[in-house]
Amino acid sequence: MIRRKDEQQVEFKCIRNGIGEAEMHKILNGADEMLGKGRMFNHMILAAGNTIGEHYHSGDSEFFYFLSGEGEYNDNGTVVTVKAGDTAICLDGQMHGLKNLGDTPLEFIALILYS
Question: For residue 30, what is the enclosing H or E element?
């Protein structure tokens, strides 16, 4: 099966009480297409100044692979700058958040897998 870009589901959502909305292009459509191993595999876009609010993971882990732009990643209370080619890992029981620092969109792949 091939899913063309124009067939992807796209959703705009404020995530975890963040600022603004994230543009979410669903690479896979939820747990069924992820064979019960996870709940999200998306191409994400945060506009300048937008954020994903700080939150904990329970029962799953989340991974960000950054494609373009520059962001500020809160890794369990330690804030670090992230850019294209970096990977952020938030394991079960850990906390994270993300802010777009630049004037251009911050693009990344987000994957959530069940523990």
Answer: helix 30-33
59-88 tens-digit pLDDT: 999 999 999 999 999 999 999 999 999 999
Tokens of 58: 């329970």
**Alpha-carbon span 110 to 94, nearest angstrom:** 16
The 10 Å CB-count burial string (b at 16+, else e) for 76-92 is eeeeeebeeeeebebee
* pTM assigned to the model: 0.96
The stretches of the chain forming alpha helices (DSSP H) are: 30-33
Pairing state of beta strands 10-13 and 22-28? antiparallel
Right CATH for 5-114 from 2.60.120.10, 1.10.8.470, 1.20.1250.20, 3.90.1150.30: 2.60.120.10
- Placement of tokens 């992820």 in the chain: 34
Strands 60-68, 95-100: pairing is: unpaired
